[in-house]
C-alpha cells in the first residue's frame, strides 16, 4: 500500500493558487479558484471517510464530528488567539475596531454569513486591513461538515428509489450559485454544495470503476486509509486483474500529467481565460477528473506526486490560516496596497517558517490527541477571546503602541481621526445624501431597469423657484459629484427644480465592464425620456481614451465616444462632460496614507503631483476631446479646480487642516468636494446661461 500523494499534490496546487492570488492578484487573477479546488477535495475525502462505514448511526456521526473538530478547530482557535495580540500591535485603531466586529463571527465559523449580511465585497475587502477575510471559506467547510453525514445517509436511503439524488442536489446548488446575487453566490454554503458533491461523485465514480475492474469483488468502496491529514491510500494492484503494460501505464500517467498542467495553466494564468462561472466549473471538473484518474497509483502522474508539491499540500491548512494575516499586517506597516517582490518574498518566508514549525509540532499533536484534550484547549482559547474582548485588551494594547503626535499649529490628533474616518468611507452602500430619495419616475423612464438603487435617486430642492432639470450620469465619480452639486445649487441656482442621479460603480462608456452594458444602454433612453436642461456625464479613467493617438481623423475610440455622447446631447439642453482630473498615487489610498504618516510623524510634503505631468500623461485623451464637435457640449476643466491652490501643483491634501482630498486615490473626500465647488458652480452657470434661463 502506498500513500496517495497525488491528493496532497492537488492540495498543494490549490494553496499555491490562493497564495499567488492574495500576494499579487493582478498577475494571478484566477488564483481564487484554488478555494473551489479545496471544496472538491473535501467533498471527495468526506465521501471516502463516510463511505467506508457500512452503517451510518449516531456513533459514526459522533466519531466523524470529533475527527473534524480535532483537525480544524484547535489550530483555528490558536490563530484567533494570536491575532488578539498581533492585530493591535501592527494595525491601526480603526482596523482593531473592525477586528472586534468580525472576530465573533469568525470564531463561530460564520464569516461567510456575516459578509453577506453586511453586503461586503470579498474582492474589495482584499484591499482592506481585515485579517479575517479568508476565514469565509473555513466557515463554508465547517457548515458542510455539519450536513454531509446526513447527505450521505439520504443518498444511501434513496439510492434504490432515486439514484440521482446527488445529481439533483448538485444541479440545485449550481442553479443557486448562478441565479443568486454575487455576494450570496460567492459566500453562502448553498452556492458551494455542488463543488463538494462533485468531489463525492468523483469518489463514487472511482469506486465503481475499481469494482468493475475487480469483476465480482465484494468491495464496494476503495480501501482508503483516512488519517487526520485526510490523506488516502490505494493499491494500484487489484487482485485477479492482469496489470497494465509499461507502455499503457506511462500513457495513463502522461494523461494525468497533461490534465494537471492544464489545471496549473488555468489557475495560475495571468488572465482570466473564461467567464468566472465557467472558470469555476472547469476547475471543479478538472479537479474531480484528477481524483478519479489517481485512484490507482500507476495513473497518478509525475507533477502531482513531486515531493515539494506534496509537502506544500501537507502544510496547506496552516499556510492558509497564516498567510493572509501576514500579508495584511505587512501591507499596513509598509503602507502599501500592492506588495513589491521583496515584500512578497518576506511574507512567504514568514508564512512558511510559521507553517513548518506549527505543522511538525502543534498540528501533529492535535491529530494524535484525544478529542477531550482538543476540546479543553479550544475552550481555554475561546475563554481567552471572550475575556480579551470583554476587557478591551486589543484596544488597550493598540493605544499603548500608538505614540502621541508632536506639537503643531494644526490639530494633528483631529486630522488623524478625520483621515482615519475618510479612509474607511463606504460611499457605495448609500445614496449621496439623505434628501436624494427613491426614483420610481426615473425607473419608469428607463423601462423599469434598475442597476443599483444607492446610485439612482432624485432630489428636489426646497428653495427652488424655477423648473430646470439636471441629470447626472456616470460611475461612482458622478455619485460623489452630486454631493458637490447639491450645496452649489442650494446656494446659487434656485431655478433648478430637480436633480436626478443615474450611476453604476465601475462602469465606463466605450469600454464597459461585465454587467455594465444594460446600464449604459439606458443612459440615452433616460435622457430622451427626461429631456433634461443640463446633463452631466462623469466618469474616471479610460484605457482606450488614454492610449496613444496615432490617427486623429480615423480614431475608433473618439468615434465611439462621439456615438455615445450624441444621443444624450440631442436630448439635453446642455451636455457637460467632466474631464478626468488629477488623482493621487499613494500606495494605500490618500486618506489612509495621510493618517499613517501623521501617526508616525512622517513628512507629507511629497503628497502632490504637477499639472504638467498630468497634462503630459493625458495628452492623447485631451487630443481626442479636441476632436469632439457637438454644438451643445461643454467641457468641464476639473484639473483647474484640483490644481488651483498653487500654480502648477496639484496637492493631494488640504495643507491648512491636513485633511486628504481623496478617500482612496480617486474618490473625493468632503474636503476634496469643497475644493471643487467653485469649479462646478462656474460650469453650471455657463450651462444655464446658454439656455437663457
UniProtKB/TrEMBL annotation:
Any Pfam family hit: Acyl_transf_3
Gene Ontology cellular component terms for the protein in this record: membrane
GO function terms (MF aspect): acyltransferase activity, transferring groups other than amino-acyl groups
Any one of the GO BP annotations: polysaccharide biosynthetic process
Residues annotated as domain Acyltransferase: 6-358
Domain of life: Eukaryota
Domain SGNH: 455-678
Name recorded for this polypeptide: Acyltransferase
Organism: Pristionchus pacificus
Amino acid at each position: 500500500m502506498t500513500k496517495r500523494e497525488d491528493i496532497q499534490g492537488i492540495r498543494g496546487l490549490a494553496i499555491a493558487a490562493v497564495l499567488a492570488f492574495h500576494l499579487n492578484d493582478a498577475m494571478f487573477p484566477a488564483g481564487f479558484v484554488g478555494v473551489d479546488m479545496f471544496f472538491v477535495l473535501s467533498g471527495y475525502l468526506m465521501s471516502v471517510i463516510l463511505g467506508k462505514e457500512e452503517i451510518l448511526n449516531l456513533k459514526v456521526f459522533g466519531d466523524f464530528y470529533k475527527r473534524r473538530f480535532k483537525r480544524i478547530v484547535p489550530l483555528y482557535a490558536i490563530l484567533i488567539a494570536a491575532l488578539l495580540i498581533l492585530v493591535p500591535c501592527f494595525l491601526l485603531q480603526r482596523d482593531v475596531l473592525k477586528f472586534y466586529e468580525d472576530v465573533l463571527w469568525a470564531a463561530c465559523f460564520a464569516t461567510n454569513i456575516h459578509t453577506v449580511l453586511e453586503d461586503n465585497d470579498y474582492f474589495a475587502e482584499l484591499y482592506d486591513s481585515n485579517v479575517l477575510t479568508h476565514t469565509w471559506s473555513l466557515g463554508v467547510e465547517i457548515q458542510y461538515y455539519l450536513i454531509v453525514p446526513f447527505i450521505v445517509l439520504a443518498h444511501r436511503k434513496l439510492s434504490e428509489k432515486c439514484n440521482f439524488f446527488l445529481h439533483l442536489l448538485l444541479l440545485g446548488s449550481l442553479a443557486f450559485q448562478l441565479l443568486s446575487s454575487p455576494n450570496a453566490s460567492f459566500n453562502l454554503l448553498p452556492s458551494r454544495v455542488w463543488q463538494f458533491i462533485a468531489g463525492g461523485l468523483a469518489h463514487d465514480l472511482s469506486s465503481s470503476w475499481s469494482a468493475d475492474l475487480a469483476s465480482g469483488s465484494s468491495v464496494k468502496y476503495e480501501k482508503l486509509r483516512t488519517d487526520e491529514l485526510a490523506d488516502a491510500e490505494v493499491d494500484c494492484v487489484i487482485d485477479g486483474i492482469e496489470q497494465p503494460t509499461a507502455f499503457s501505464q506511462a500513457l495513463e500517467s502522461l494523461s494525468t500529467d497533461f490534465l494537471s498542467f492544464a489545471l496549473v495553466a488555468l489557475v495560475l494564468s495571468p488572465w482570466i481565460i473564461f467567464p468566472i462561472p465557467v472558470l469555476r466549473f472547469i476547475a471543479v471538473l478538472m479537479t474531480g477528473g484528477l481524483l478519479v484518474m489517481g485512484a490507482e497509483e500507476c495513473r497518478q502522474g509525475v507533477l502531482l506526486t513531486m515531493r515539494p508539491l506534496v509537502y506544500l499540500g501537507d502544510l496547506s491548512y496552516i499556510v492558509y490560516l497564516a498567510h493572509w494575516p501576514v500579508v495584511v499586517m505587512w501591507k499596513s506597516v509598509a503602507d502599501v496596497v500592492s506588495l513589491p517582490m521583496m515584500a512578497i518574498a518576506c511574507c512567504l518566508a514568514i508564512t512558511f517558517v510559521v507553517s513548518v514549525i506549527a505543522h511538525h509540532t502543534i498540528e501533529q499533536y492535535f491529530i494524535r490527541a484525544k478529542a477531550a484534550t482538543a476540546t479543553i484547549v479550544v475552550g481555554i482559547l475561546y475563554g481567552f477571546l471572550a475575556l480579551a474582548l470583554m476587557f478591551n485588551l486589543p484596544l488597550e494594547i493598540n493605544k499603548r503602541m500608538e505614540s502621541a503626535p508632536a506639537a503643531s499649529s494644526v490639530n494633528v490628533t483631529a486630522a488623524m481621526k478625520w483621515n482615519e474616518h475618510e479612509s474607511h468611507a463606504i460611499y457605495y452602500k448609500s445614496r449621496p445624501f439623505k434628501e436624494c430619495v427613491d426614483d420610481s419616475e426615473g425607473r419608469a423612464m428607463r423601462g423599469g431597469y434598475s442597476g443599483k438603487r444607492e446610485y439612482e435617486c432624485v432630489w428636489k430642492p426646497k428653495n427652488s423657484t424655477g423648473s430646470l432639470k439636471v441629470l447626472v450620469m456616470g460611475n461612482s465619480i458622478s455619485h460623489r459629484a452630486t454631493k458637490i452639486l447639491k450645496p452649489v445649487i442650494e446656494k446659487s441656482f434656485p431655478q433648478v427644480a430637480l436633480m436626478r442621479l443615474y450611476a453604476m460603480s465601475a462602469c465606463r462608456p466605450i469600454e464597459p465592464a461585465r454587467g455594465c452594458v444594460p446600464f449604459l444602454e439606458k443612459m440615452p433612453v433616460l435622457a430622451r425620456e427626461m429631456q433634461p436642461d443640463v446633463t452631466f456625464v462623469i466618469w474616471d479613467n479610460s484605457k482606450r481614451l488614454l492610449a496613444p493617438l496615432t490617427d486623429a481623423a480615423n480614431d475608433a475610440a473618439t468615434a465611439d465616444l462621439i456615438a455615445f455622447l450624441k444621443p444624450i446631447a440631442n436630448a439635453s439642453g446642455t451636455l457637460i462632460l467632466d474631464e478626468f482630473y488629477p488623482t493621487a498615487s499613494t500606495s494605500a489610498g490618500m486618506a489612509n496614507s495621510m493618517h499613517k504618516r501623521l501617526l508616525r510623524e512622517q513628512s507629507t510634503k511629497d503628497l502632490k503631483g504637477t499639472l504638467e505631468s498630468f497634462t503630459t500623461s493625458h495628452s492623447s485623451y485631451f487630443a481626442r476631446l479636441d476632436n469632439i464637435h457637438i454644438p451643445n457640449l461643454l467641457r468641464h476643466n476639473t484639473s483647474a479646480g484640483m490644481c488651483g491652490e498653487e500654480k502648477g501643483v496639484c496637492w493631494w491634501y488640504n495643507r491648512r487642516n491636513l485633511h486628504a482630498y481623496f478617500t482612496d486615490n480617486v474618490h473625493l473626500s468632503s474636503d476634496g468636494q469643497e475644493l471643487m465647488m467653485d469649479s462646478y458652480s462656474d460650469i453650471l452657470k455657463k450651462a444655464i446661461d446658454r439656455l437663457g434661463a
